[in-house]
Amino acid sequence: MSDTSQKQIYFHVGTGKTGTTFLQYRVFPKLKGIYYIQRTRYRRVTKIINNSHYTRFLVSREFDQQLEDQVKLFAEEFPNTTPIIVFRKHASYIASQYRRFVKNGFTGRFVDFIDLENDQGYFRKQDLDYSQQIGILEKYFNPKPIVFFYEDFSTDPDAFIDNLAALLDVTINPKDLNLKRKHTSYSEKQLKAILSAGKYINLKKRRVFKNSVLHLFWRFYLGSIRYTILYAANCLPEKYFRKEPLIPKDELEKVRKYYQNDWENCLAYSKKNIN
User: Fold this and answer.
1) Are 83 and 198 contained in the same domain?
2) How do strand 35-37 and strand 82-87 relate by DSSP bridges?
3) pTM for this one?
4) pLDDT at 272
5) Per the CB 3.0–4.6 Å rule, which of 34, 35, 76, 196 could disulfide with 54?
6) Same domain, yes or no, for 28 and 160?
7) What b/e string do you get for 224-236 counting C-beta neighbours within 10 Å, with b at 16 or more?
8) Is residue 108 part of a domain?
9) Is residue 250 situated within a structural domain?
10) Model confidence over 113-125: pLDDT tens digits?
11) What domain range is 202 assigned to?
12) How many domains in the chain?
């Protein structure tokens, strides 16, 4: 077992819909000069770091509403870790999350997903409080967190990756990168179809069988229903779908205004700690 006090650890606490999966599979494995621990190996992260001869590590895991609990556990083992987090503009983030949840069987309206007035939505107001998330990282880790923004990655991925590599003091060969989008977004009418079907069929991802083989068949069965609906919806004309938008623009604007100060604070924090 090696001395972990001599090891440098970076922990990417990725949140959903901020390019996390892309970074985990397309970028992080290509970084040279640091040992990358994939999310599929996260359960063994303590053992891997403690027993490894490497001195520099990059760990990545996706957290949303369980962020503080997981960060606290990691920090108990490695308090000198430098955390990395990527934020996305609040309205864009919650809209993308809502589309993902609808695709996976969520049957509520957008106002049932994020309820700014009564805070009774699936996502609570504090779940989009980025300043609070920075505070959590500062609370449990000794080094200040490194803050990135999804919009920078979306606009200029090459510059984003170069900046990431510089801050981690690693190198990367641009020729090794595949920057093509991994997933395509589903259309408005496809998601409306899933939303409607979900009121009659439970399409939520869930475990029904304890047996792994049966669970695999169940996932295949549920997925086949979901993707059949998505495909069929794409073939139907617009007149078969309700005219109301899946996500009302005025509701998105409320989200943007509510979190405007939070977004500006995060921008200022990032500049201060990077410079």
Assistant:
1) no
2) unpaired
3) 0.90
4) 85
5) 35
6) yes
7) eebeebbeebeee
8) no
9) no
10) 999 999 999 999 9
11) 188-244
12) 2
> Does the residue 171 lie in any domain?
yes
Closest to 110 (Cα-Cα) out of 205, 86, 100: 100
Q: Are residues 135 and 219 in the same domain?
A: no
Q: Which residue from 140, 164, 162, 125 is spatially nearest to 270, judged by alpha carbons? A: 164
Residue 168 predicted with pLDDT over 90: yes
**Is the same domain home to 34 and 165?**
yes
Q: Token pair for residue 74?
A: 């990691």
Q: Which two tokens stand for residue 140?
A: 């449990």
Q: Could you tell me the two tokens for 153? A: 């990655």
Q: State the sign of the Cα–Cα–Cα–Cα dihedral 14, 20, 24, 30.
A: negative
User: Looking at the structure, do residues 143 and 240 belong to the same domain, yes or no?
Assistant: no
CA atoms within 13 A on the CB side of 13: 29
The C-alpha atoms of residue 104 and residue 195 are separated, in whole angstroms, by 9
Q: Please state the rounded mean pLDDT for residues 238-267.
A: 94
Phi, psi of 244 (to 5 degrees): -65, 135
Encoding tokens for residue 172? 């990367």
Instruction: Show contacts of 201-205: CB within 8 Å, 24+ apart.
Output: 201/225, 202/105, 203/104, 203/105, 204/104, 204/105, 204/106, 205/104, 205/105
What is the pLDDT at residue 236?
Answer: 86
Q: Which of 247, 17, 12 is nearest to 127 (CA)?
A: 17
